[in-house]
Amino acid sequence: HDLTDPYFAAIADGMSRAAADRHLFLTLATTGNRLDQLADVVLTGAAARSETDPAGARPAEAATTSRLVLVDGRGGSGKSTFAARLAARSGATVVRTDDLSWQHHPIEWDDLLVHEVIQPWRAGRPVRFRPPAWDARGREGAVTVPVPCPLLVVEGVGAARRGLAELADVVIWVQSDLDVARTRGIARDVE
């Protein structure tokens, strides 16, 4: 893969060697029907990674039937689009980091994800989590993960940071042209 994005290179460099050996890294720079083919590659890779993990490589509570896919990339790169395609092809549940960081903190939300979403999910419990800011600001709904949920996809800027990547079966970096990402981001955020 092309590690031209310095943010992605920092993620890959910062990860422990054991974690890097367990991951299927993909840099996606495509759209349309090709995304469905790439989703199939990811699903195959997630299954193979969790079936071949050496003893002790994943957290003890992780069942081999539960797989975690992290989709990261810069704003407007197509993370949400790819995560939606992956979910449509697999029945996965998608959790968006934007929901965890909303009115909380733009980058310090990983503890919420690990303790309130990933750990209960890996333990086989349903998740219905209302981040603290949701109650404080009157936001409706909750971050939910049903059981059973054999595939959980977490998408958003920073989703593949070191502490989270260590827990994942597959890490995906979505790369796009900066001008395309800027145009997408403006169209999304202005509407």
How would the global form be characterised?
globular
Rg over alpha carbons: 16 Å
Q: What fraction of the residues are assigned to beta strands by DSSP? A: 15-25%
* Poorly predicted runs: 1-5, 52-64
Distance between the termini: 34 Å
The main β sheet shows up as: 5 strands, parallel
Overall mean pLDDT score? 76
Could you characterize what this model shows?
- The chain contains 9 helices and 7 strands, in the order ααβαβαβααβαββαβα.
- The protein has helices at 6-14, 17-22, 34-52, 79-90, 97-101, 110-122, 132-137, 162-165, 178-190; strands spanning 24-28, 67-73, 93-96, 127-129, 143-145, 151-155, 170-174.
- A 5-stranded parallel beta sheet has the order 1-7-2-6-3.
- α3 crosses α4 (79-90).
- Residues 1-5 and 52-64 have low confidence and may be disordered.
Short description:
With 191 residues, the protein is an alpha/beta fold. It is built from nine helices and seven strands; from the N terminus they run ααβαβαβααβαββαβα.
Any key phrases for this structure?
9 helices; 191 residues; single chain; alpha/beta; two-stranded antiparallel ribbon; five-stranded parallel sheet
Structural topology:
Elements: H1 6-14, H2 17-22, E1 24-28, H3 34-52, E2 67-73, H4 79-90, E3 93-96, H5 97-101, H6 110-122, E4 127-129, H7 132-137, E5 143-145, E6 151-155, H8 162-165, E7 170-174, H9 178-190
Parallel strand pairs: 1-7, 2-6, 2-7, 3-6
Antiparallel strand pairs: 4-5
